[in-house]
Design a protein that fits this description.
9 strands; two-stranded antiparallel sheet; 5-stranded parallel sheet; 15 helices; about 15% strand; alpha/beta; about 50% helix
Length: about 300
């Protein structure tokens, strides 16, 4: 990807509609070899861009899904204790092996279970992989500190085997839904971009790329309604992912135009909390739909 336009074109080839600001930061991340930190609401396409970059470049995608309590051992490597115990029992049954020799044999690559960070440091066919560290805000400060060290030198240390250094640094993409603030020290080592909800025109482009069978009139009604919905006082506003899911549900039901009845039947595709669904019961869905259609007429 030799230019910003090339980035947009390559991602469009993977059905990912990318604005120029995001394409620019992706281009710079690839050009300078810097990790890319993407922050924004859930469902705005942060994870999808890592998949699109990997597919466009023909690289392997390695995903580290973060969660509360994630530690270095789970992210880097583990020893296959079950296989090690079998080897110990086999040695005992054979009459006992030299203890030091057995210990050395047990802590080799044969008994090593590689987790995402270690996998990303290994040579890969086709070039350095894309390492997606997804939803980093779900972890805690100690893991952030460990990650800071690992990404600084692109190496990890296994006490029994030594240091494993990446022959070519992986393409690192870190995402956060901002449920908590990520430490500045980590952000400073990355290029940063806030992934916001798209405007009407771009969301139409996204829907056409991801749900091409949807008629133009229906797509416009879907996007207009969802964008109006995001202005309501909801616990969880629908993201672009929900827009796409809803469009596919409506296509499966052979819906031609939105109506309050259709919206009531399919709200579970765009809203994921019962309190939010209850707010749209009765006349509220009709009000929002009427406002959305009025905006389309006046556009």
């Amino acid at each position: 990807m030799k230019s910003i336009d090339a980035v947009q074109s390559a991602l469009a080839g993977q059905s990912y509609v990318c604005g120029r600001a995001l394409a620019t930061v992706v281009f710079l991340s690839l050009k300078l070899g810097r990790p890319l930190f993407l922050e924004g609401e859930a469902g705005t396409g942060k994870t999808e861009i890592a998949k699109a970059i990997a597919a466009a470049l023909g690289r392997r995608l390695i995903r580290l899904q973060c969660y509360e309590g994630l530690d270095a051992a789970s992210a880097v490597y583990e020893w296959n204790f079950a296989e090690q115990m079998i080897a110990i029992r086999a040695a005992e049954a054979a009459g006992g092996a030299d203890r030091d020799a057995l210990k050395t044999e047990l802590f080799t690559e044969d008994y090593l279970i590689e987790r995402p960070l270690l996998q990303a440091m290994r040579p890969q066919v086709g070039g350095a992989p894309v390492l997606l560290i997804d939803e980093l805000d779900r972890t805690d400060a100690p893991f952030e500190a460990f990650l800071l060290e690992a990404l600084s030198d692109f190496q990890v240390t296994i006490p029994e085997l030594g240091t494993v250094k990446a022959p070519e640094p992986p393409i690192v993409i870190i995402t956060s839904n901002r449920t908590r603030e990520v430490h500045d020290a980590l952000k400073r080592r990355c290029l940063y971009h806030w992934v916001d909800y798209p405007n009407f025109a771009r969301e139409i482009e996204i829907l056409q790329a991801r749900a091409p069978k949807a008629a133009s009139a229906l797509s416009r009604e879907i996007v207009a309604f969802v964008q109006k919905l995001r202005g309501e006082d909801l616990f969880k506003k629908p993201g672009v992912a929900e827009t796409i899911d809803w469009a596919k549900c409506l296509l499966a039901l052979d819906v031609i135009n939105l109506s309050p009845e259709v919206i009531a039947d399919t709200l579970g595709a765009i809203l994921k909390y019962q309190d939010d669904i209850q707010k749209l019961e009765g006349s509220e869905a009709k009000r929002i739909l009427d406002e959305a259609k009025a905006d389309l007429v006046n556009a």
